[in-house]
């Protein structure tokens, strides 16, 4: 299959802009948060996007953020299940922690979602860096970084073994004999490792796409090593084309070295403001900026060991309040430093960090399409995760005005080629290990 651009959208309401709830058009909107989430998924599907994506930090964030937050932190898996009933083709990618969830539960929930959605589920496997998340699970401190990846490795091994419990043709449904399953095609995981002992089998049939798609976002040495070997698709975030291109070359090189024939898809974050002209986009940007809450953002950054709370917003960025580049937040810190160096004031820095997971473009549909094409054709990305400031509004501007340009240029699909997330992403279904061994 020829190479194809992939577009996913963040599904969190009311959007990626902290303080989006203050915008008059949001504050006076009578839709419930659930309805706004549903509308966002529908816009994503009408725009033929590959998937909608839900991140998850397993905590409510630093206390300094609480006064400014909306309690819309829906749990990703249940949200995706609800959205599956109002969409037909759109992929649904949910974050699940290898650190705090038992592999059996993860395997069961994700394969259930995959079956219930006709093969549209993806798992964003995270190792959960936040101390505040650890505090919610009764663990005494965050497990050391590289140990988290060792555990992630074993979690994924167990989950995949459980997903292989039933071979494709295990179901025979012989009503006459009362035999539903051919037990020679049902397998226990019988896993005994450093962190887990799991017997299995998992009583769920193979999904229409074989198995859920694995997404990963590691950026440290251990993280990229893990992603290069295991991920079907890789989330990442870079403030400049050059950094993204370097990352893309490195991670696909690592995947090749690991012997992978089907290379992972790399999708950096793209934060955008689209208007009919560059001038209009700038006006919309000014309007959005009025809702921004710098105090929220300063408090939020404490989570990645940057503590600039209490410093004058119109003064310089206090760079000595940034942790030295730790493995813990490797790429994030590098990205924030880059932003800090180009910001005249702390206020400007804080505003620009709302798109820290990615590149930011403010402009006409053509300008945004040009950037996408440049990154895609010049080796920096296979696609993007769209982080609209306000959803569904800004996402809809994108699907209505940028997507048609990408289609005209032959970069993006004009219709879905299949019904599963794997078919959108062009990723083959993995063979069941027992079937393959026959
Ligand atoms: C687009 C994107 C989305 C992410 N979503 C989550 C998330 O939902 N939950 C989470 O705990 N971490 C999330 N992360 C953080 C990564 O899982 C990872 O911890 C981070 O990139 C640092 O990499 P490292 O763990 O290899 O140091 C995300 C990262 C990116 C770039």
Residue-averaged pLDDT:
93
CATH class bucket of the domain at 6-162 and 202-275 and 359-432: Alpha Beta
Task: Please state the second-level CATH architecture of the domain at 6-162 and 202-275 and 359-432.
Answer: Alpha-Beta Barrel
Instruction: Please count the beta strands (DSSP E, at least 2 residues each).
Output: 13
Shape: globular
Gap between N and C termini: 28 Å
Radius of gyration based on Cα positions: 22 Å
Give the biggest sheet.
8 strands, parallel, barrel
Bound molecules: flavin mononucleotide
**Classification by helices and strands:** alpha/beta
Strand order within the widest sheet? 1-2-3-4-9-10-11-13
Query: So what's the oligomer here?
Result: single chain
Helix run count:
16
What's the CATH H-level superfamily name of the domain at 6-162 and 202-275 and 359-432?
Answer: Luciferase-like domain
- Which series of helices and strands comes N to C? EHHEHEHEHHEEEEEHEHEHHHHEHEHHH
Strand content: 5-15%
Which residues sit in consecutive blocks of at least 5 with pLDDT less than 50? none
Q: What does the secondary structure layout of this molecule look like, with pairings?
A:
Elements: E1 6-10, H1 24-27, H2 33-46, E2 51-54, H3 76-84, E3 91-97, H4 103-116, E4 121-126, H5 131-135, H6 145-163, E5 171-174, E6 179-181, E7 191-192, E8 197-198, E9 213-216, H7 221-230, E10 233-236, H8 241-257, E11 265-274, H9 278-289, H10 294-300, H11 330-341, H12 346-352, E12 358-363, H13 365-377, E13 383-388, H14 393-408, H15 421-425, H16 433-437
Parallel strand pairs: 1-2, 1-13, 2-3, 3-4, 4-9, 9-10, 10-11, 11-12, 11-13
Antiparallel strand pairs: 5-6, 7-8
Helix pairs in contact: 2-14, 3-4, 4-6, 7-8, 13-14
Flavin mononucleotide binds at residues 55-57, 95, 126-129, 217-220, 223, 235-237, 269, 330-331, 357, 385.
């Amino acid at each position: 299959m020829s190479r194809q651009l992939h577009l996913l959208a963040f599904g969190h309401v009311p959007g990626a802009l902290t303080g989006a709830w203050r915008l008059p058009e949001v504050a006076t909107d009578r839709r419930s948060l659930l309805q706004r989430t549903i509308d966002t998924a529908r816009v994503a599907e009408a725009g033929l996007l590959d998937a909608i994506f839900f991140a998850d930090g397993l905590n409510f964030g630093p206390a300094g953020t609480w006064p400014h937050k909306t309690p819309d932190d829906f749990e990703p898996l249940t949200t995706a299940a609800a959205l599956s009933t109002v969409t037909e083709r759109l992929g649904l990618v949910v974050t699940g922690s290898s650190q705090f969830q038992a592999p059996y539960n993860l395997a069961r929930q994700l394969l259930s979602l995959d079956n219930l959605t006709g093969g549209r589920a993806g798992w964003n496997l995270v190792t959960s860096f936040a101390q505040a998340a650890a505090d919610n699970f009764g663990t005494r401190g965050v497990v050391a970084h590289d140990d988290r990846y060792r555990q992630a490795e074993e979690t994924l091994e167990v989950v995949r073994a459980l997903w292989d419990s039933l071979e494709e043709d295990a179901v025979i449904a012989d009503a006459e004999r009362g035999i539903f399953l051919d037990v020679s095609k049902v397998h226990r995981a019988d896993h005994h490792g450093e962190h887990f002992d799991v017997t299995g089998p998992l009583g769920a049939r193979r999904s229409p796409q074989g198995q859920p798609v694995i997404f990963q976002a590691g950026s440290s040495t251990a993280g990229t090593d893990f992603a290069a070997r295991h991920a079907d698709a890789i989330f990442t975030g870079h403030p400049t084309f050059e950094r993204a291109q370097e990352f893309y070359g490195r991670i696909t090189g690592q995947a090749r070295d690991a012997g992978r024939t089907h290379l992972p898809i790399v999708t950096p974050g793209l934060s955008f403001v689209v208007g009919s002209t560059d001038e209009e986009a700038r006006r919309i940007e000014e309007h959005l900026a009025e809702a921004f809450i710098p105090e929220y953002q300063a408090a939020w950054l404490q989570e990645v060991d940057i503590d600039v709370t209490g410093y004058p917003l119109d003064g310089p960025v206090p760079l000595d309040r940034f942790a030295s580049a730790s493995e813990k937040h490797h790429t994030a810190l590098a990205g924030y430093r880059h932003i800090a160096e180009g910001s005249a004031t702390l206020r400007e820095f804080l505003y620009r960090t709302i798109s820290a997971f990615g590149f930011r473009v403010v402009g006409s549909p053509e300008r945004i399409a040009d950037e996408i094409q440049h990154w895609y054709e010049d080796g920096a990305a296979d696609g993007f995760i769209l982080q609209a400031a306000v959803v569904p509004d800004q996402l809809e501007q994108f699907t209505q005005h940028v997507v048609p340009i990408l289609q005209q240029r032959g970069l993006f699909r004009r219709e879905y080629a299949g019904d599963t997330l794997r078919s959108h992403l062009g990723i083959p279904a993995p063979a069941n290990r027992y079937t393959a061994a026959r």
